[in-house]
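Structure, all three chains, one model.
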Amino acid sequence: MKLLVTLKRTPQRDARIRISGEGAALDLDNVQFEVNPFDELAVEEALRIKEARSEVEVVVVSVGAEECEQQLVSAMAMGADRAVRVHHEGQPDSLQVAKALAAVVEREEPDLVLSGKLAVDDECGQVPAMLAGLLGWPQASQASDIELSEDASEATVVCEVDAGLETVSLALPAVIMADLRLNEPRYASLPGIMKAKKKPIATLGIEELGALGSTRSRVTGFRALEDKPPGIKVGSVEELVQAFEEKKLI
Amino acid sequence: MDELNTIFAATVTREILWNIPGWARALMYLLFLAAVALCLMGVARRVRYWRQGREAGEPVSLGKACRRLWRDAVLQVRIWRSGAAGLGHALVFWGFIVLFLGTCIVAVEDYGSWLLGREHLFFTGTFYLAVSFALEVFGIFFLLGLVVALSRRKSGGRLRPLSRPVDLAVLWLFLVIGLSGFATEGLRIAAAGGGLESHPFERWSFVGWWLATGLQGLDGNVLTTLHLGSWLGHMVLSMAFIALIPYCKLRHIFFAPVNIALREDRKAGRYLGVSMEEVEETGRYGAAVAADFTRRQLMSFDACTECARCQTVCPATATGKPLSPMKVVLDIAGSSGGGASLHGDEISPDVLWACTSCGACVEECPVYIDQLGAIVDLRRHLVAEGEIRGSAQAALRSVAAAGNPWGMPQEDRGDWADGLGVPTIDEVDSPELLFWIGCAGSYDRRSRKVTEAMVRILQAAGVRFAILGKGECCTGDPARRMGDEFTYNELAGANIESLSAASFERILTTCPHCFNAIRNEYPDLGGDYDVVHHSEFIEELIASGRLVLEDGAPVRGTLHDPCYLARQNDVVEAPRSVLRSTGLDVVEPEQSGKAGFCCGAGGGRMWMEEDTGERINSERWSQLEETEPETVAVGCPFCMTMMTDARDAVDSSVEVKDIAELVAERLPGSLT
Amino acid sequence: MADTLIIIQAMGNELSKSNLAAAGFGREAAAASGGAFDILLLGPSASGLSAAAAGLGGGTVFTMSSTELEVYTAEAFAAAAAAFLADHPYRLVAAATSSATKEYFPRLAALLDVPMASDVLKVESVDPQKVILTRAVFVGNLLATVELEAPQALATCRSSEFEPQTPGGETSTVEPVEMPAGLASSGKTFVGIEAASSDRPDLKEADIIVSVGRGTRGPDEGIPLCERLADVLGAALGATRAVVDAGWLANEFQIGQTGKIVAPEVYVAIGLSGSIQHLAGMRTSKTIVAINKDPEAPIFEVADLGLVADLFDAVPELTAALESRGG
């Protein structure tokens, strides 16, 4: 069985993100990067499937410049078998990324594609569903539990939807998007990192993958949230109720 | 006189193995051979087990081994931490040794005289009497020691030993051997031909003599039968004892002295590092199977006497966690070895993560087992497998990515100093002190107040100091205690680079964890610095007159000794002396100084949930409350957090303050 | 083409507040483009809702339902919308952000090969070649201006940022549309749904939300106190991720970066410290009230009214005080 996990290189989740200059771009000079935490959940899930069965290959893929190989190595340090990087220097939009991934899927022919439901930087959450649309595969999002059938032809997924927990059944191959409560990713420590250095990373140029189209979605500026005027602290419940009344909240 | 000597010389002795028929002697030799064989087999089995370990560490010089044996095998210094235990063990120990020597003397006499075709060898006359007397005395010591041991199990104090079936069985075995020894002697003296008057020198065996006088009325045949029976019982039990030695806690008879003498030099506050090249080469990190330990580590685990002192002083065991240092040691020793994983239901992640690395176990162990070292090695394996989750994993990631366990921005590290007139190291030429702030002191709002207090003290004393500011990152202590040497090496390496590029005389720190890491562990990575804890430095300032404190109202208070300061680095008096200068005369809690009880935050536990049993910090707080303090003084940001939380949990109005804060309050002209 | 299409998932008997806000987005987009907006009702209750939808100010209300749309699946809805749009092209197609649109709208974008913007906060401009929108990034800490450069584009909009339109007034024409057969993907089967039923208002609909954090110590301790407060206030109940992770409340109560994003009139945060991820989900609430024992909790930085107190005392006291006012 082959599992393909897509991952994105995102700024360290605690990092303070500064706007540079007039807001045209971000100042990421002193920022460290990591595997998008939601994609890490997807990697962990793939590894758990691998550990529960025999002969499962876990391949991780990312679209980006050479630096994102660090993140591919991290994923392999957790236990993924090999990596593929689609080389792209610029800022591709979600649809372009999805098209690149679709081309990789066509080459690799995985049984299941796992991905995080959104990336913590742009929070678009579009790529995996777009990928499913391009492939014409069934999809499940906000997955908090995934169970594969014995013969790996089907996946039963519990999805955290607005109304509660929805269970769906997907015929594989399919695309599933990981949510926070799917699992708790393992720590990629020393021996894993040592082994990962020896695992292969294949690089694909865009030309090899076919047309991705032009970049049609672009961020042209950033600005900080407006500062909120400071609130007031009251000393007792009575005062609170008074304040409620004054503000006509009740 | 000559006449007496002649009489003594010739007839003052006893017939060895009197009344013991041939079949019984044969049985004795057979059982002896069997017992020795079983014993040697058992020992060989343990030695084979040790030999699967790796070679490591410096060999121990003869002089050092002898010094160690003198201190801990002869004087048995650590056992005497409980007076009753020291006495009891010494009585049994020396009683046994002398009785054993006595048996040897008898054996030499028996075979030697037979070999040389003489009637006697040396076991006559004055020698015989001296030996007999000594055996009586030490036989009584032996029995007394056993009585002490048994009674301690009923009513021992803090270091009370275990009363499991095996513990009681061993004591009773000894008791019966000892009593049957005296009984056999008494019966012999009573039954030997000619009556008591014919060998009055037997008075020197005063216990046997006393028993014999009581047995006078019995028929001669009854006495001889009883004598044989008693002898047989004594013999069989003694052989059983010999055979049993390596198969139960009695193995410490052999292995404890060996470990005491030959153990590796390990210190609780100084972990043995592992280089990345080593890991790459061997593919091994931490302990998964017995062979991952060093040979001497495996040997040390067999020295365990199962006294359970480590367990008794362990804060995790005391609060109901599944961790017991003794059990970890015994589980490792009891594993089948080879490829069998040590990790499982017994040595589980819950057990290993419960450790606060306080080192109380190591400090207490009378036979010098490094339980903490074993736990750390096992933890490293968990981390190697990625088996670290939740807030602990988040803290490790933050430490690696952001240089501090809370994930705060590195560029904010020097922010606490804004407006305080604190220069960075590039602004001062060779200052007396480099003030190492630490992560808590830089980012935690409560600890920042301690940093600020320390700055006020340094400024008041006119000390030329500087800070690294943004150039400082976590010492790596949390990573190391949690078992991630990779992250530790990276952080330590970066810090050593910054420190080596700077010039200063000494490093001052308000955090015992930073203190311990930089002082004891950085040298292994090439960073050798003179480090002082703020309690020590303030003591120096006061003693030299550079710092003068105002007098004020005395404060009733106590001190919670930080484990990494007092126990692991022997800094016990300095905080007390400093506190005295602030009017706080420390009312000692029951467990203080090097025997202090941990606050619960060490070993990376600061970043882990505590959801089993009682809270360690609450347990400590109750101990401190017994001193009825107005103020609890602390000397560590972790202790500060834990004691404050514990105080808040019981809604107490007792103050929790750092030593620096209490000193700063007494600075001349201070507003507080 | 008419400029903007608002797609509304027609599943219940009423148009939800989110749907009404989506119509508000439609109005804004129409104004920006100098055109009009239409509505597409997709789902089993399409015709049932058409009358109400017709009063929202749109030009035409299309209804589309079929057996394949009885149960929501991303595959069926994306395919249906794509089929509709093939015959009825629009410059901008939008829907309110929901767990459903989060997953079917990008699929739709891929089927149409058009760019998409997620969870838009504001419409800056709509031109024939370019749409400029504002959205939040980096856990809601920064605002980003996004340009979609294409003749057709998709967007989901954050319903708390747009004015819910009140039905009534102008009436649109209602036009039922046939759904081509065989569009649903046979690859997905709906198995079941576990939804908590409650008398309390839906989180996305409510004017007042009482939100609980770890400080409440769970369903046996502080949560019932907060539930009583919610009852008195007629409020919806929300929770932080920590509370849901601990299993004290189900996932549908979660507010935050990865839960629901809300902006009610009043948000009462009880026993929650205010992590960045949680703030991302509620910081634009009109009035934020915080009750917490820790005076330095980050929630106080965004709270309009703050009370530093033990919630186990303060919440019952507050509930009682409000009750006695007939609150």
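The longest helix of chain B spans residues 83-115.
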